[in-house]
Design brief:
- With 330 residues, the chain is an alpha/beta fold.
- Helices cover 47% and strands 20% of the residues.
- Strands 2-1-3-10-4-11 form a 6-stranded mixed beta sheet, sandwiched between helices. Strands 7-6-8-5-9 form a 5-stranded mixed beta sheet, with helices on both faces.
- The longest helix is centred in the N-terminal third of the chain and has 28 residues.
- It is globular and about 60 Å long.
- The N and C termini lie far apart (71 Å).
Length: 330
């Protein structure tokens, strides 16, 4: 080989080796080895999402060999937490635990959410689905939806306020559907999460509320609230006596909301895989499955690809319902 060609070949090998080492260092630097991992939650401490996050964080820290710190960025239906995720570096040190409202619904019901899930976030994996449900407080004698409707007509003049955990949420659209079907004047009262809403229900400040089963199941078991209907194609195993809205004549309310982990866009794929593998191991632990199931979750690990598909399908389904309702983004 001529000297010039030999020099060029050596230079090429050195350049390739240097590039490979730099890339490897970059991947390694993106791995959350020892450094704390922030698990963002868009709702207050004590709410269903917070309880799930703390259970997962406790188990994930051992598998990731790093502290996992739950960080509550409550407010605006998860919008604040989602904006924080977008602003975070894609270095494997920040995740968002979210359900469907923040990712699939919120960007459709407000004009400038400050984030676009499809481009700003990377789905990591799904962990569960669940159902929303209607509950009544101790201030009403109703034991069923029909009894609640009769109570509103006879005792409230056909008008009532139903609490919802966030404005422009699926529970708010359900209030609209109920108002139309039963020919009542039902108004949604948006709260900053389910915890303050259920507090008002227990204080009989509002007679009814719509939220997720995980948010309400313990209060139902304690007899402080009464769950009278759930969304879903089937009755909930934890609530076998409670009918679905489909059984009550509401069509197209069979889609199950989801819980999943999300990372900032641009997070290296091997970091995403590492988090996904760790989550899969956590969800296989019997004590974790038992606790999450007791919260009213349908626990099922979903890898990145299928979970991303679920998010897209769910988002499109509710986009059709939101548009048909005539809802105008605020």
């Amino acid at each position: 080989m001529p000297p010039a060609a030999t020099s060029l070949a050596c230079l090429s090998r050195r350049s390739f080796t240097a590039a490979a080492l730099a890339t490897a260092a970059g991947w390694a630097g993106a791995q959350p080895q020892g450094a704390p991992v922030r698990l963002l939650v868009g709702f207050p401490a004590g709410a269903g999402t917070d309880a799930i996050a703390r259970l997962l964080a406790e188990k994930l820290k051992d598998l990731l060999h790093a502290p996992v710190v739950v960080e509550n960025r409550a407010g605006a239906g998860g919008q604040i937490a989602a904006q924080a995720l977008k602003a975070s570096a894609p270095d494997g040190h920040t995740l968002l635990l979210s359900h469907d409202h923040t990712i699939s619904i919120l960007p459709q019901v407000i004009r400038n959410p400050g984030f676009a899930p499809a481009t700003d976030f990377t789905p990591v994996a799904g962990l569960a689905t669940f159902s929303n449900m209607l509950a009544v407080s101790g201030g009403t004698p109703a034991q069923s939806v029909d009894e609640y409707v009769r109570w509103v007509k006879t005792q409230r003049g056909g008008k009532d306020t139903i609490g919802v955990p966030a404005p422009g949420s699926i529970p708010e659209f359900l209030v609209r559907l109920m108002s139309e079907r039963y020919q009542l004047d039902l108004q949604a009262a948006p709260y900053r999460g389910s915890a303050p809403m259920t507090a008002d229900m227990m204080g009989n400040q509002i007679a009814a509320g719509i939220a997720s089963v995980p948010d309400m199941i313990e209060l139902h078991r304690a007899g402080k609230l009464r769950i009278v209907a759930v969304i879903g194609a089937r009755r909930q195993p934890l609530l076998p006596q409670v009918p679905t809205f489909g059984e009550l004549g509401f069509a197209h309310l069979d889609d199950y909301p989801y819980y999943g982990l999300f990372a900032p866009a641009g997070t290296p794929q091997q970091v995403i895989d590492r988090f996904g593998n760790a989550l899969q191991q956590v969800l296989a632990m019997p004590d974790v499955r038992e606790k999450l199931t007791a919260m009213g979750l349908n626990v099922a690990f979903e890898p990145q690809g299928p979970f991303a598909g679920r998010v897209r399908t769910y988002t499109a389904a509710w986009e059709r319902i939101i548009r048909a309702s005539g809802f105008q983004p605020a």
